[in-house]
Amino acid sequence: MDIKDIQNLIRFVSKAEVAEVSIKQEDIEIKIKTLHGVVNQPAAAQQFYMPQAPTQVVAGTPQPAAAVSTETAQADENANFVTIKSPMIGTFYRAAGPGKDAFITVGDTIAPGKVLCIVEAMKLFNEIEAEVSGKIVKILVDDASPVEYDQPLFLVDPS
Predict the structure, then answer these.
(1) Fewer CB atoms inside 10 Å of the end CB: C or N, the chain?
(2) What is the dihedral of CA 8, 14, 126, 83, to 10 degrees?
(3) Mean pLDDT to the nearest integer, 10-21
(4) How far apart are CA 111 and CA 55, in angstroms?
């Protein structure tokens, strides 16, 4: 079983709403556990929604220009860029090891097959390669940070 098979298995299990999968092949044993079967989550992991008090708008009163949300502005700004996402859950590393140069920095030009980063999952260091060519505009994750499946890692300008 190679890295691609393991990545595909992780994707499949996360989408299948299975609580646990265990596979044994010759000298390899893989266990994948998800939160799909968990009934009681700790209070720290739960998310709560706090509605904001409604604001009153008097008819005819002009609204300030700052009322446009920054999220909308960022979405329009990022619409021309390609987002490279994490193919798995793990820990994001920008370099091959401590004290070594980062694989890429903002402004670097990339091509398909170029190693962008490493995502460590279950003690396996998986090199994440570019699938598009372009210029790195933004690195969205800090070094040695945990990442989720399908979490945006990089913004690339394909032009």
Answers:
(1) C
(2) 100
(3) 74
(4) 49
Q: Would you say residue 148 has pLDDT above 80?
A: yes
DSSP 124: E
Per 3-state DSSP, what percentage of the chain is helix, strand, and coil (rounded to 5)?
20, 35, 50
The DSSP bridge partners found for residue 115 are 129
pTM for the full predicted model: 0.53
Q: How far apart are the first and last CA of the chain?
A: 37
Beta-bridged to residue 152, according to DSSP, are 85
Determine contact, residues 65/73, Cβ cutoff 8 Å: no
The answer to whether the beta carbons of residues 156 and 128 sit under 8 Å apart is no
CATH topology of domain 80-159: OB fold (Dihydrolipoamide Acetyltransferase, E2P) (2.40.50)
Q: Where are the domains of the chain?
A: 1-35, 80-159
68, 74 Cβ separation under 8 angstroms: no
Q: Is 84 left (phi over 0), alpha (psi -120 to 50) or beta?
A: beta
C-alpha span between 78 and 133 (Å, rounded): 17
